[in-house]
Design brief:
With 627 residues, this protein is an alpha+beta fold. The protein folds into five domains: 164 residues, Macroglobulin (MG2) domain (Immunoglobulin-like, Sandwich), CATH 2.60.40; 52 residues, no CATH class; 67 residues, no CATH class; 85 residues, no CATH class; 143 residues, Glutaredoxin (3-Layer(aba) Sandwich), CATH 3.40.30.10. The protein has 25 helices and 17 strands. The protein has an eight-stranded mixed β-sheet with strand order 10-17-16-13-14-15-11-12. Helix 17 packs antiparallel against helix 18.
Length: 627
C-alpha cells in the first residue's frame, strides 16, 4: 500500500493496538483471520464473542444483518475469522462483547473495528469508507449495542469517500447532507439547502428517488414549502408513483359519498393493482359497506380480497353485531367463516407484541364464539352446539365470559346436551361467571332430574356458590361504610310522595341517574335484575332517583314511558337528595340499611351486569342478616 492510503487505513482502524487481521490487504472472496486483545471493558472476561456486519454500497445495507464470530482464546488474545464474499462487499465492521452478558461490549469508542476491502493493487475499494458511515446511518448495529454514532465521525467518513471516489456522489449526496443536518454545525442550514439545489441542478432529469430525498432533507430542516415543491415535481415526473398513489388513497378515504367512493376505489385498483396502499384501502371499504348497511355487497367484496387485505378482528366485530341484532344472519356466518380461513394462514400482525401462537388461539376462540352466535340466531342449534363445544373449556371457567356461558348452556338445553354441558355450568357458577339466567336454567333442569326437586336444586346451586360468596362477603365487609342516612321526601313520576320515614326499617337501594347519562342507562338492565331478585321481599325497596337532569321533567316521563322499566322514579329536581348523600358523579348506587344508615356507596358502572347484580344482592342480603 502506498503512503497515499496509509492515513485512510489508520483512520479506519483507530484500535490497531487491540485488533489485527491477516491478510493486511484483504480482497473479495478471502477469509480474514484476526486477533483481538481485550482492554478496558472486556479485559477480564473469558467468554467473548464477535458481532460483525458486512457493508458495501448504500443500497445493499438493507440486505446485511449482524452475524456472530466465534472466538478462540489463546493466552491473552482471542482469535477468530470472517469470510468476505466475492461481490458487493467493501468491508466488515466488528464489535466484541461478553457472550453471557451482552451489555458488556467493546465498541472501540463507538467507531467499531473495521476490516476494509482492497483491490488487487492494495487500494481501498469504493465504499470502503462511505460504507462504514452507512453502517451508522442505515442500520441499527450500533444502536442495538446500546450506543449512538458520532456525527462528526459519520460526516468525516462521507467526505473522505466522496474525495476519493467523486463518481459516487449520486449514491451518497443525500446521506451526506442528512449527516450534516444531524451534525448541526453553525450555518449548516443554508449550506445544506445550497448543496441540495446544486445537486439537483446538476441532474438534467432528477429521479423520483432524488426528489424524494430532497423533500425529506427540506422537511428535516422544517422547510415544508420547499419540500412540497419537490413532491409536486415528483408527481409530475412519476404520475403513477407513490406520492400520487398516496394522494389518491387519501381522496378515497375522505370521500363522503359512498357511491363515488366505490367508483374511486375501483379506478384505483385498476390503475395500481400492486399498490402498497391497497390493504388499508380494502379494510376501509369493507367498513364502508358495513356502515352503509350493504351487507350483501360487503360479503361479495370480502370474498374477493386476498388475505393481506382482510382485518380478521374487524370482520369478527361486524359479524357478531349482525348476529346480536339478528339481521343478515347468513351473511354474518359467511363473514366469520372468511375471517377464520384468513386467520389460519395469517402471519403475525405488526400490532401484536406478544406470542403470536397464543394470540392466534384467542382470536380463533373469538371467531368460533361469533360463528356459534350466528348459527343459534338462525335456530341452527345443533350446529351451534358443536361449535361451542370446540372452544368451551370448563377448566378455564375463570377466564370465561358469563354471556357466552349462558348462550352455550341454553343451546345445550335446546339440543338435549345439558348433561354434557353440566361441568361448564357448575364451573361457571363456582367462579362467578354465570349469569342469573344461566343459574335459573341450570337450577330448573337440575330439579327435573331423577331424585331431585326444586328445593334440592336450589340447595345444590347454593352449595356451588358457597365458597365464592363467602369470599365476596369478606371483600364487601372491607368496603362497607356506616354513615347517617339523611332524611328525604320526594315526589315520583306518578305524583306519589316517597320519603325516608315511610321506608324506615327496610333496606333501600338508591340509584342516582339522569336520562343523558350513558353509564346510568347502561346499568339499568343489571339494576332491573337486582330488583327482580328481591321483588317478593317486602323489606327491600329500590328507588331510581332522577337527579342532575338539567332539562324538562317531561324528558324523564318520556324516557320511562319508552323503556317501560318497572322502577319507582322519585324526582330530585334541586339535587338536594344527591347533595345530601354525597353524590359526586352519576350513576351512584347507595344502599341504606334498616337502621337508617348508609352502608354502601359506588360510583360509575363497570360494564358487567353480572358483577353489578351479584355485588348489590350480596350487600342487601348481608344488611338484612344484621340484627
Amino acid at each position: 500500500m502506498t503512503s497515499k492510503f496509509f492515513p485512510l487505513l489508520f483512520l479506519c482502524l483507530p484500535g490497531l493496538a487491540q485488533f489485527r487481521y491477516s491478510p493486511d490487504k484483504p480482497q473479495l472472496g478471502q477469509t480474514v483471520s484476526f486477533t483481538y486483545t481485550p482492554q478496558g471493558t472486556l479485559a477480564a472476561d473469558s467468554t467473548v464473542e464477535g458481532r460483525y456486519m458486512r457493508y458495501g454500497a448504500p443500497a445493499m445495507m438493507h440486505q446485511s444483518h449482524p452475524l456472530t464470530a466465534t472466538l478462540v482464546r489463546q493466552g491473552a488474545v482471542f482469535v477468530g475469522e470472517v469470510y468476505i464474499p466475492k461481490k458487493d462487499i467493501a468491508g466488515t465492521v466488528l464489535l466484541f462483547r461478553n457472550s453471557r452478558q451482552p451489555t458488556r461490549v467493546d465498541l472501540n469508542k463507538n467507531q467499531l473495528y473495521v476490516i476494509p476491502v482492497t483491490d488487487a493493487t492494495g487500494k481501498l475499494v469504493p465504499h470502503a469508507l462511505g460504507g462504514q458511515a452507512s453502517v451508522f446511518t442505515r442500520s441499527n448495529f450500533l444502536y442495538e449495542a446500546g450506543s449512538r454514532p458520532d456525527p462528526n465521525r459519520v460526516v468525516a467518513l462521507y467526505e473522505q469517500e466522496l474525495k476519493e471516489n467523486p463518481d459516487g456522489q449520486p449514491l451518497y449526496w443525500a446521506d451526506y447532507l442528512a449527516a450534516l443536518i444531524k451534525q448541526k454545525k453553525p450555518g449548516y442550514g443554508p449550506k445544506v439547502k445550497k448543496e441540495i439545489e446544486s445537486y439537483l441542478a446538476s441532474r438534467p432529469k432528477p429521479t423520483a428517488a432524488e426528489l424524494t430525498a430532497a423533500a425529506q432533507l427540506y422537511e428535516s430542516m422544517g422547510d415544508f414549502a420547499k419540500a412540497n415543491v419537490q413532491r409536486e415535481r415528483m408527481k409530475t415526473l412519476d404520475p403513477a408513483g407513490s406520492l400520487v398513489q398516496k394522494d389518491r388513497a387519501v381522496a378515497i378515504r375522505s370521500q363522503p359519498d359512498w357511491t363515488r367512493r366505490k367508483a374511486l376505489y375501483q379506478a384505483f385498483v385498476t390503475e395500481f393493482p400492486k399498490s402498497s396502499h391497497l390493504p388499508l384501502l380494502a379494510i376501509g371499504m369493507a367498513d364502508g359497506y358495513f356502515k352503509n348497511n350493504d351487507i350483501g355487497g360487503l360479503v361479495t367484496f370480502v370474498e374477493a380480497q386476498p388475505a393481506s387485505h382482510i382485518d380478521v378482528l374487524m370482520l369478527n366485530t361486524m359479524a357478531f353485531q349482525l348476529a346480536e341484532e339478528k339481521r343478515s344472519l347468513p351473511e354474518a356466518e359467511k363473514l366469520v367463516n372468511k375471517a377464520m380461513t384468513v386467520l389460519k394462514t395469517q402471519s403475525k400482525p405488526r400490532d401484536v407484541t406478544g406470542n403470536w401462537a397464543d394470540e392466534k388461539l384467542v382470536r380463533q376462540r373469538q371467531l368460533m364464539n361469533t360463528l356459534a352466535r350466528a348459527l343459534e340466531q338462525q335456530n341452527k342449534y345443533a350446529d351451534a352446539y358443536t361449535v361451542y363445544q370446540s372452544f368451551i373449556n370448563p377448566d378455564d371457567a375463570e377466564n370465561s365470559d358469563p354471556r357466552v356461558n349462558e348462550r352455550y348452556y341454553l343451546c345445550a338445553l335446546r339440543t338435549n346436551h345439558a348433561t354434557e354441558a353440566q361441568p361448564m355450568a357448575e364451573a361457571a357458577v363456582q367462579v362467578g361467571k354465570a349469569t342469573p339466567r344461566l343459574k335459573a336454567a341450570f337450577r330448573d333442569w337440575y330439579a327435573k332430574q331423577p331424585g331431585q326437586s326444586d328445593a334440592k336444586a336450589l340447595a345444590y346451586l347454593t352449595s356451588l356458590e358457597a365458597d365464592l360468596r363467602a369470599e365476596q362477603r369478606d371483600e364487601l365487609r372491607q368496603i362497607l361504610i356506616n354513615e347517617p342516612a339523611p332524611a328525604f321526601s320526594l315526589t315520583d313520576l306518578q305524583g306519589r310522595t316517597i320519603s325516608s320515614s315511610v321506608l324506615k326499617g327496610k333496606v333501600v337501594v338508591v340509584d342516582f341517574w339522569a336520562t343523558w347519562c350513558g353509564p346510568c342507562i347502561a346499568s339499568f338492565p343489571a339494576m332491573q335484575q337486582a330488583q327482580s331478585h328481591f321483588q317478593n321481599d317486602p323489606n327491600v325497596r329500590f328507588l331510581f332517583v332522577n337527579t342532575r337532569e338539567g332539562g324538562p321533567q317531561q324528558r324523564v316521563h318520556s324516557f320511562m314511558a319508552k323503556n317501560t322499566y318497572p322502577f319507582v322514579v322519585p324526582l330530585d329536581n334541586q339535587q338536594r337528595m344527591a347533595n345530601a348523600y354525597k353524590v359526586k358523579g352519576i350513576p351512584t348506587k347507595v344502599v341504606i340499611d334498616g337502621k337508617g344508615r348508609v352502608r354502601y356507596r359506588a360510583i360509575g358502572y363497570n360494564g358487567s351486569p353480572e358483577a353489578t347484580v351479584n355485588e348489590l344482592t350480596l350487600v342487601v342480603e348481608m344488611l338484612k342478616e344484621e340484627k
